[in-house]
Amino acid sequence: MSNSTVTSICLVISARTEDLLFAEKVALSCGRTPQQATTVVAARAFLAAHPDAVVLWDVDHPGILEKADPLSFQAVAQMLLETTDPERVFAISKEPVSAIPYVFNIPAFGHHLFRKYDDPAAAIIARIAIGCSRSDPSELSHYLAPRADDESAVQKIMIRKSAHRRAAADAIVTLVDKRGIHPRLAALAAQAVDELLMNAIFNAPVSPEGNTYRRLMDRATAFDLSERETVTLEMGVSPGYVVVSVSDQFGSLQKKAALSFIRKDYQRLDYKMRTNEPGAGLGIYGMVQSGLSLLFLTRAGIQTKVVVFVPQLKNFRDFRDSFRFVSFVSR
Amino acid sequence: MLTAQVQETDRARIVKLAGVLDDTVDFETLIGPMPRVILVECSQITRVNSIGVKRWMQYFALVPASQAQIVYVDCSPAIVEQFNMVVNFGGAGRIRSVQAPFTCMGCDHRFVEIYMTENLLKEKFNIGSRHCPKCKGEAVFDDHPAEYFSFLMR
Asked: How far is residue B81's CA from residue A96's CA, in Å, rounded to a whole number?
């Protein structure tokens, strides 16, 4: 690992032992030194000395919403906005991010992790932390473990017709099934690819004036994609997980828009159907709710790539208990 | 693509759905206008996408209980996930039974068993182990009851 792409510390802003242990693993995986801060003052001092530190931040400890708390949400979030880039900040909670709405008040984080630290969580987060520091973080291989055999190779499929979307989703089922992954997980992966392809084909394309021009089309419409509209589907395998990505060539998806879908809570509040457009507004919400991990990589005007991480688990109960995350990286 | 086998009886229209619930579905064509009583058998629905959810809700969830009696039976895990994720997915319909997934501890064989929701509620979602139909070993419920049956706990 090149020292030029890593920084010196992995700062954990948390008083929890489990978070510190996880930070130690992440730090080890990406060649950094773990540091713990249990007050805002200490965290600020660390970040002043190491502005490019990776930050793991406990966002759901008891008392976080009390002003007097040494790690109150308001104080830490403000400090992070002043001292670092949200893409270096990994917010950690026990609950889904939709269950802790206050984190959206000050979006000082670029990533959200569940506090479930089974393998290969630390290795994945280390790869994402390193990927974020690259000038081009969009190479799928950045997020795979290097391997000696052919499995490290990334397979690529170009989607040139809108009607090929369903066949591509079916192909994902076959791919993950070959890896011995649970059929329900395989179905979730296929659903995710289907949603991402729909987004890439219908929502991503924008005219030179910045207007979407396929958004109002029925999603079952069959048409040829132009050279720029061609969508790339990539697949790769790493120990413990399979990754699948879908890329468009427009780079029009914004973090704010994706977060607005993720923060919805249709388990409690009625979903209101969109009547003015064919889309449902449930794709990203459903992917996150299903428990899959997602990495959104956007180069504005150039590319949006969304990477889905599918854990190689043989039973679904283990999947429910497994580590998961949502990440946003923009250039 | 979703397919439907439709059967009319004196008391209800029975519809057996199978396949992928997605943007290609047109329930008006598959099933016809919403009848007074409809039994929707969902055991063979394997996957659902967001447009499929919207189409489903346009057909089933907008109907007031006073106009139609909708009963969902043998809901597959893919459909159960939707009931869990979207609180108004089934509208005024009633979920009578669901498939519960099991995995054998011995041979990894996977199978489903049908549970009446009424009994699940009575038994407080306490699902014990089962005998694997393949090797007779112990098979366990392959999910967390609190998550898989969360739609019944609201």
From this structure: 16
The pTM of the full predicted model, rounded to 2 decimals, is 0.93
Query: Residue B118: inside a domain, yes or no?
Result: no
Q: What's the complex ipTM?
A: 0.93
The residue of B24, B45, B49 whose CB has the most chain A CBs within 10 angstroms, and thus the best one to mutate to test that interface, is B49
Average pLDDT score over residue span B112-136: 95
Best residue of B21, B23, B88 to probe chain A, by most A CBs closer than 10 Å:
B23
Within-domain flag for B106: no
Assign residue B6 the CATH number of its domain.
3.30.750.24
Instruction: Kindly report the nearest CA distance between residue A270 and chain B, in angstroms.
Output: 6
A191 has a chain B CB within 8 A of its CB:
yes
Write phi, then psi, for A161 (nearest 5 degrees): -135, 140
Residue at token pair 């589907």: A233
Cross-chain residue pair A274–B150, CB shorter than 8 Å: no
Helix axes of A283-290 and B77-85: crossing angle, nearest 10 degrees: 110
Mean pLDDT, consecutive 10-residue segments, chain A of 331 residues?
57 97 95 95 95 95 94 96 95 89 89 92 94 89 80 85 95 88 94 96 96 95 97 93 96 91 85 85 91 95 96 91 93 83
Whether B144 is covered by a domain: the verdict is no
Query: Which token pair is B75?
Result: 């809901």
- Chosen for mutation from B50, B58, B108, B144 (greatest number of chain A CBs closer than 10 Å) is B50
Q: Across the A/B interface, how many CB contacts are shorter than 8 Å? A: 91
Q: Is residue B102 part of a domain?
A: no
Query: How many angstroms separate the CA atoms of A278 and A201, rounded?
Result: 13
Query: What is the C-alpha separation between B70 and B103, in angstroms, rounded?
Result: 31
Domain that residue B16 falls in:
2-95
Cβ distance B143 to A317 less than 8 Å, yes or no, reads yes
**Contact criterion met (CB < 8 Å) for A194 and B49:** yes
- Tell me which residue of A78, A88, A77 sits closest to A10, measured CA to CA: A88
CB distance from A275 to chain B under 8 Å? no
What is the tally of structural domains in chain B? 1
Token pair of A104 as six digits: 């959206």
Q: What is the average pLDDT value for chain B, to the nearest integer?
A: 96
